[in-house]
Amino acid sequence: MNDLETAGQPGAVEREVRRHRGDSVETVTDHVGQEWPVALVFNGISHAVMMCTPRDLEAFAVGFEISEGIVERGSDIKDIEVELHDDGELPHAEVHLEVVQQAFVSLKESAARSPGAPAAAYAASRVSICWI
Questions:
Q1: Element (H, E) at 66
Q2: Is 12 a member of any domain?
Q3: Could you list the residue range(s) of the whole structural domain that residue 55 is in?
Q4: Is residue 44 domain-resident?
């Protein structure tokens, strides 16, 4: 299995942790939630970065688009491609979505209406990757 294959990601990983109880501290192995920064890129422009469990990223991206009103229905999405990266200390992913032109224009217009920020500045402000 490819270590970056999202279908094989467990959602939780074993890590050494420090437990504090009262005055005592112990180091133990425990299960912790697995999260990656995931950039959502619409028609080539990065829109948001979310921390999430690296499973079912296509479904996550479609749900985000619909719930945020970026698209009205699934058929407004022309293509979805997931890119997984492990080129540093923290694995991360990008979900590239191609949406119909009308949805993309609406997304750009809503960014332009953001108080005090032109569309390009608004888009740039939402592109940062969260590194732990």
A1: helix 57-67
A2: no
A3: 35-125
A4: yes
Confidence of residue 48 (pLDDT cuts 50, 70, 90): confident
Q: For the chain, how many structural domains are there in total? A: 1
User: What's this model's pTM, rounded to 2 decimal places?
Assistant: 0.66
CA distance 123 to 46: 7
- Amino acid, res. 94: E
Find the CATH number of the domain harbouring 91. 3.10.20.10
Residues with Cβ < 8 Å from 110, sequence gap 6 or more? none
CA–CA distances in Å: residue 17 to residues 30, 32, 34: 7, 9, 14
Please report the pLDDT score of residue 121 as a whole number.
42
Q: What CA–CA distance (Å, rounded) separates 82 from 77?
A: 14
